[in-house]
């Protein structure tokens, strides 16, 4: 394991003693150099720990406070997007583990504007996956126009989807889980789904229409064809929100959107305030990620296992 010098946080930053860090598929963008990166770089953007030093000018955070850091490294507060309240799309946003070192480490330096507060009732290892997979699905559901009682579908029952189904159920939606294989039906129902659609056997769009049409589809699976199929399953003014990054194009006829005023959009994680709400909601409702753990010393092995697709469903490094 590489050794780096312990440095003090610069103004506006804090130093965190890391207790746990999730291993996310998005870390591949760092490991494989898909982002513009200055090497060497430490991956990891689901880090949870305790502040052990505060830089100059930081207000609202204190030494000893439990905090987390997600993919967004902290907004600038002065660009036009920040001034308009769109912190997620800050023009000067840095990504944790990309422009600066992430959480596969004992210590992490983080911009204070990107910090998320960790509830006392939530263990570090349980909180870590919620900073990315949890925040992403919770934010997409929470910011959608669907209302309690509406039909909401979650495409994919993996790292994001198994959390999305739980959040959707506890938000009061009629939940449809869409997966591949009849063997996932019972698991989907245990997570809280009212209905299960096996996309290997039936057309998901038709199945959703048979249930009355979905007000919202949260697409956590990355396949373009699978996402396109769900567009036909939307009710009028329904929406598909894509969360899974993929180079695969999503191909559909414009008429599928025009007739019924349907839409499709992407969503990238959520702001720190929504991160706080994600964790608090998870504590209140008992929503939790299914996790496997490995010690920091086995980070390379943990990453390889995550990339193999064998993890059920989130890998977390412990320090």
Number of helices: 11
Overall form: globular
Please give the share of residues in helix: 25-40%
Domain count: 2
| Topology pattern, helix = H, strand = E | EHEEHEEHHEHEHEHEHEHEHEHE
What would you say about this model in short?
With 319 residues, the chain is an alpha/beta fold. It is built from eleven helices and 13 strands.
Task: Write up this protein.
The protein has 319 residues and is an alpha/beta fold. The protein folds into 2 domains: 13-132 and 270-318, Quinone Oxidoreductase, Chain A, domain 1; 134-266, NAD(P)-binding Rossmann-like Domain (Rossmann fold, 3-Layer(aba) Sandwich). It is built from 11 helices and 13 strands. Strands 1, 2, 3, 4, 5, 12 and 13 form a 7-stranded mixed beta sheet that branches. A 6-stranded parallel beta sheet has the order 8-7-6-9-10-11, sandwiched between helices. It starts with 12 loop residues before the first strand and ends with a strand.
């Amino acid at each position: 394991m590489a050794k780096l010098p312990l440095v003090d946080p610069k103004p506006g930053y804090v130093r965190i003693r890391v207790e746990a860090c999730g291993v996310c598929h998005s870390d591949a963008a760092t490991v494989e150099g898909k982002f513009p990166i200055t090497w060497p770089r430490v991956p990891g953007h689901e880090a949870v720990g305790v502040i052990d030093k505060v830089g100059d000018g930081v207000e609202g955070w204190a030494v000893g406070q439990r905090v987390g850091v997600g993919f967004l490294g902290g907004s600038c507060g002065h660009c036009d997007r920040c001034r308009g309240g769109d912190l997620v799309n800050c023009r000067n946003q840095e990504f944790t583990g990309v422009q600066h070192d992430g959480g596969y480490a004992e210590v992490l330096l983080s911009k204070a504007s990107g910090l998320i507060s960790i509830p006392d009732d939530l263990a570090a290892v349980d909180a870590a996956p919620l900073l990315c997979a949890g925040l992403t699905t919770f934010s997409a559901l929470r910011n959608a126009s669907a209302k309690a009682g509406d039909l909401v579908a979650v495409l994919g029952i993996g790292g994001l989807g198994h959390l999305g189904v739980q959040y959707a159920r506890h938000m009061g939606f009629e939940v449809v889980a869409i997966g591949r294989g009849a063997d996932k039906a019972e698991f989907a129902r245990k997570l809280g789904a009212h209905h299960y659609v096996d996309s290997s056997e039936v057309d998901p769009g038709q199945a959703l229409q048979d249930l009355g049409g979905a007000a919202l589809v949260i697409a956590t699976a990355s396949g373009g064809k699978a996402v396109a199929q769900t567009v036909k399953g939307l009710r009028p003014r329904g929406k598909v929100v894509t969360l899974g990054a993929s180079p695969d194009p999503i191909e559909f006829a414009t008429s599928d959107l025009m007739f019924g005023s349907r839409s499709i959009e992407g969503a990238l994680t959520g702001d720190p305030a929504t991160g706080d709400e994600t964790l608090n909601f998870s504590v209140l409702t008992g929503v939790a990620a299914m996790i496997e753990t490995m010690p920091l010393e086995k980070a390379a092995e943990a990453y390889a296992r995550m990339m193999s697709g064998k993890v059920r469903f989130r890998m977390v490094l412990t320090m």
